[in-house]
Every structure is written in C-alpha cells, then in structure tokens.
Design goal:
alpha/beta, Rossmann fold, Phosphatase 2c, domain 1, 2 domains, 5-stranded parallel beta sheet, 24% strand, elongated
Length: 370
C-alpha cells in the first residue's frame, strides 16, 4: 500500500504545495488545518508519517507532538517539524519532544522527499525488528509455559499453583516430580532478574531436577546436583534461590531444603500454622553449597505452601516480615477452602492493595491426603 502522509498546516497554500510534491511520488496525502483536527485524523487514518507545522492557531506543534507521543495509538508515528523557526533552541525542543526531524521553511521538495523516505524506511525496519522480537518472546513464553506441569497432569501429587509472570518470560519456576507412587518432589525457584535471560535458566532447571531427584539422590544431593551445573552457566551477577520439598507418604515425612529461599508455610489439619525455616546458600554463588535438610512429620490434611518473594514484597524496600505475616494469615484464613480456591484467594489477598505487580509471583500449595 502507498504510505500515508498527514500534513498539519493552517495555511492551505503551504499544504497544497507540499501535498502535490508528495502525491507526484506516489504518497497518499491528507491535511489538517489545526491541532485538534490533526489529533483526530491521526487516530482515524493512522498515517505512516506526520509533517507538523510548529505554529498552529489552537495549539502549538510542540503540544500536538507531545500529545501524539504520549498516546500509545499514535506514539509510533514519526513526526517531522516544518517551521520558519530556524534557531537551535526550536530544533532541539522539537527533537526532545519526540520528533524525528526538523525541516526549515521554505521547504525544498527534493529535501523533503529525501527525509520523508529515510524516516519511513527507518520506521519499517523498526517495525519488522519489533515484530521479530515479539515472535521470539512469544515463542519463549510458550516454551516456558509448556514445561510447567499442571495439576491435572499429576493429580496424585495433590497440588495447585498460581503463576503470574511480570514479563512475557519469567524468572520464577516451579515443578512437581513423581519419584515413585508414594514419593513426590515439589520445587520452586526464583532466578535473579527478569525476561529472556532468566527464562533460559528456568528452562534448564526442569531437566536438572529430574536428573537429580530419583531414589539415588537425597534432597541435599538434588540441590547440589543442580548447583554443580548452574554455577558454571550463570553470569557473575546471576544466582537463584530455591526450595525443594520431598514428600514420602510411606514414612509420612517431608524433607525440606532451602537455598536462600523464603521459608515454606505449613497449615496443619487442626488449623495450627507454622513457618518452616531452612538455611542454605543460594544456587550459583558457590561451587559447593552449604545446606541443611529439615525433616517434618506430616499427617493427612496438612497443607504446605511454597512461594517466591514477589508475593511478600509489597513495595521496593518494604519489610518482608510484614509480607510474610500477611501471607501466613491468608493461608490460615482459607484452610477450609478447596486447595485450588485457597491458592487463588491467598494470592489475591496477599497482593492486594497493590495496583501492579513488582516482581514475578508464584504460589504453589500441596496437601497430604489420607
């Protein structure tokens, strides 16, 4: 399709001269005589480029440009100022507001055409780059979600999860592993950072967890095995915290390993709740981890909750103890609800009253059945 150009100038003769030059080269041209009309046409016609006079009868071109760049629907449209104002201050002001170029009046058609073509080509290159990046991010997001086990895929593990990534690709990860018919592993991790870099690490964790979670490995061995690989591939600034809980229904014990991760919450069948603290180094910081395994006796009706710190950090620099206490109360409050409803309600109540999430959010709950 022919590129569309919107000319914004209150003098019809100026617009006509510029329009003829553009139309002769195959461009589609529309005209607005005021700032209000320019904003309306920008939304309706979605031009590929706007030629904007700096001086208009109702609003200045600078104000119109500012409106255009603050609106997501028009922010991507390149704006070139046309003005008799030729001083450096006027040019810099226009470029700072978001214009891509500044052409002095009187306009020379050949210069105008050359600059219009350059900026339209730049826009097309940027559009293609964004489209390619979006496809890659979407593919990464889909791949990351596809490796996360869903409760209906492993019903006998009796777990539910609420997973709210901050970006398209998350640094939070969870997995549930069936080690044998009566032994299950529940794993939650939080990779430092966000986006694609963190997501690539989470995609490797699933394979590592399965490699090191069989009967041959204790819970400490599992975490150390993951660390032995991850510590060699993380950048110097990266690490991950993790919590791994192995439930043995035959012995009625839960073995808990924490690697620098927020403590697990237990709500007993009788309604009593406790925080299951664990001590251990974060994964990836050292080649040898110092870990401590906590053994917990369980009974039918007990519920356990693993989570990442995005759920308890209400704002930057906030006291995490307050967030943890709020989470603990929510877990107790919803003890009688079915686990799926409880996990959803606990997440909602703990995040409230934040308007937007500050980090990836993950809550995994599982319960001991008779």
């Amino acid at each position: 399709m022919r590129p569309g150009i919107l000319i914004v100038d209150d003098l019809p003769l100026n617009a006509e001269l510029i329009g003829h030059a553009l139309e002769a080269e195959g461009f589609r041209v529309s005209w607005a005589a005021s700032g209000a009309e320019a904003l309306e046409l920008s939304h309706e016609a979605q031009p590929d480029l706007i030629l904007l006079d700096a001086v208009l009868p109702d609003e200045s071109g600078y104000e119109i440009c500012s409106h255009l760049k603050s609106d997501p629907e028009t922010a991507d449209i390149p704006v070139i100022f046309l003005s008799a104002l030729n001083d450096v201050g006027s040019r810099v002001k226009g470029l700072k507001i978001g214009a891509v170029d500044f052409i002095s009046k009187p306009v020379h058609p050949e210069e105008l055409l050359a600059r219009v073509r350059v900026h339209l080509r730049i826009r097309e290159v940027n559009r293609l780059a964004r489209s390619g990046n979006q496809r890659r991010i979407e593919a990464l997001r889909h791949a990351q979600r596809s490796i996360l086990v869903r409760p209906e895929q492993l019903c006998e593990a009796h777990f539910e999860v609420c997973y709210l990534p901050l970006e398209e690709a998350s640094g939070d990860f969870y997995d549930v592993v069936k080690i044998d018919p009566d032994v299950f592993g529940y794993f939650v991790a939080d990779v430092s950072g966000h986006g694609a870099g963190a997501a690539f690490i989470t995609s490797a964790l699933k394979a590592l967890l399965r490699q090191y979670s069989g009967p041959l490995y204790s819970p400490e061995d599992t975490m150390r095995g993951i660390n032995s690989v991850v510590s060699h591939v993380l950048s110097e600034e990266q690490y991950l915290t993790a919590c791994y809980a192995r439930l043995n229904l035959r012995t009625r014990t839960l073995s808990v390993i924490s690697a620098g991760h927020p403590p697990m919450i237990r709500v007993k069948a009788d309604g009593e709740a406790e925080v299951v603290h664990g001590e251990g180094d974060a994964v990836g910081l050292f080649h040898t981890l110092v870990l401590h395994c906590r053994e917990v006796r369980v009974q039918a009706g007990d519920r356990f909750f693993l989570y990442t710190d995005g759920l308890i950090e209400t704002e930057p620099g906030a006291n995490r103890d307050q967030g943890s206490a709020h989470l603990l109360k929510a877990c107790i409050r919803h003890q009688e609800a079915p686990l799926k409803e409880a996990v959803s309600a606990i997440t909602s109540e703990t995040l409230y009253p934040r308007e937007t999430a500050l980090d990836d959010v993950l809550l995994l709950g599982f319960e001991v059945r008779p």
